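Our consortium's second objective concerns turning raw sequence data into structural hypotheses that experimental partners can test. To show how far this objective has progressed, the report includes one record in full. It was chosen at random from the queue rather than selected for favorable results. The single chain below, 75 residues long, was entered without modification.
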Amino acid sequence: MKELSDAVIVFTIFILPIWLFLHYRFKTAQVKYGVADEDLQRLDELQVTAAHLQERVQALESILDTKVPDWRRKS
């Protein structure tokens, strides 16, 4: 039991504060320097996907406008 409580004390006094300091320093650096490169790449991919989806919706709407002229009023 004594060994466990000694380990907890060592962890609490030495390891935990260092870990917390490094953790929040890293988080602050992320915020300070903006969005990570992977996040920017993912945002670009999502923007391209959204543009493709918008084109598809516009194509489907134009088809519906031709085939069923009053489809917008029905929904």
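The partners drew two points from this record. Helices lie at 2-32, 37-67, 71-74. Residues 1-34 form one domain. Both points have been shared with the crystallography group to help prioritize constructs.
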